[in-house]
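Hi both,

Apologies for the delay on this - the queue was longer than expected. I finally got the zinc ion-bound model through. Below you'll find the protein sequence and the ligand SMILES exactly as submitted, and right after that the structure tokens for the full complex including the ligand.
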Amino acid sequence: MTSKSFKKAVIAASATAVLSLPLFMGSLHTTTALAAGAKVAPAKVPANVATPAKQMTTPKNVVLFIGDGMGEASRNAIRYATVGKNGTLEMDNMPITGLVRTSSSDHLVTDSAAAATAIATGVKSYNGAIGVDPNKKPVTTIMELAKKAGMSTGVVTTSQVTDATGAAFGAHVENRSAQSDIAKQYIENSKIDVLLGGGEDFWYPKGTAGAHPDTPAEDPTEASKGTQGNLVDRAKQLGYNYVTNGTELKAAKNGKLLGLFANEEMFQAHNEVGNQYNPIVSLPDMTTKALDVLSQNKKGFFLLVEEEGTDEMAHDNNAELTIKAGQQLDKAVKVAKDYAKKHPDTLVLVTADHETGGMVIEGPDDEDESGDGMSKEDGPFTVAGSEEQFYIDWTTEGHSAVDVALTAMGPGSQQFAGNYQNTAIHDKLVKLLKLK
Ligand SMILES: [Zn+2]
């Protein structure tokens, strides 16, 4: 806008203001007159206008998927590689889409702990915070509220089950690294019914290997390092069934369930021996079992399912394994959607805590624009069902500050359309589940 047209615009705006003033006063006057009247007919909503109250149905169950680090480019890359340009992933074949803002209380670029704390508690906190506010005071989580209301709760992840994303739903610690404290709080305080993932090393003290041997060939640095005694024994005392592999998981009876399937993450990343993504129990299989167990509760359940490979492989700028992990997440989403089709009182949400890697999808060209010291482009990858190819380039080995997508289906899913802060996910769920 030139300065002349700016002046004109200002004049026009003030003219409008002057003109509208009497109108505004007039409407005020009318309102006052109405309020003073003895009998006023209640306002009627025309029949053809849907009331928000009617739209907001109450879900009985919630399954919240978090693809850690899974930004839009990541979702797109998973789509191109899996179902092609015109195909639709399970996670995208849902009626509602929203965009979630991800910054933490102290950084534009969040970490997983602050992001999960925002989603779980409705409070923005500092990077590293688990279920505590910026003053390090514990804040009640949505899973704790759900539990109080009689619902069952579960955390399923390919990461350590005590890693940041799940932790923020069932623990309160000042720093995400206190994973043995998180484990103890899970079983003693928030009493999460189903816990499936990796991270056995934090449940046993040093020297007690457990089912997964210390210093294994795939990563010799892995060894038990628990700081809270033998928490597997403690869990058993508290009534948890304990399983350590897929066969045991399948056979596990209903009731409280703890499954630890790896020393650390259920895959290998940032690893001298080489990255691998081959969890001994798949995310879809863990999701299936969690739904079996949790659905026994007539009062409903709240299940968090996290895929961690989409974050850690992106930190390593490894597009192939980022996509492979994302494909597993999509299969797990299908498991929940199939459950929701049979149990339509189930709300399913798929989102991310933040984006990782500053991922970009490019067409083939001869040039790798990555500068000196940057990781190389990955590819070529084939667009499924075609001859076309694409490459993936990275701009960081950390997280970025872009919004992440959220897709939703089921009762109350309409509430998740739009662009909102990550804290709003908590607020919307509390309202929908009538937890406060
Ligand atoms: Zn990360």
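Main takeaway for now: The two ends are 49 Å apart (CA to CA).

I'll put the files on the shared drive as well.

H.
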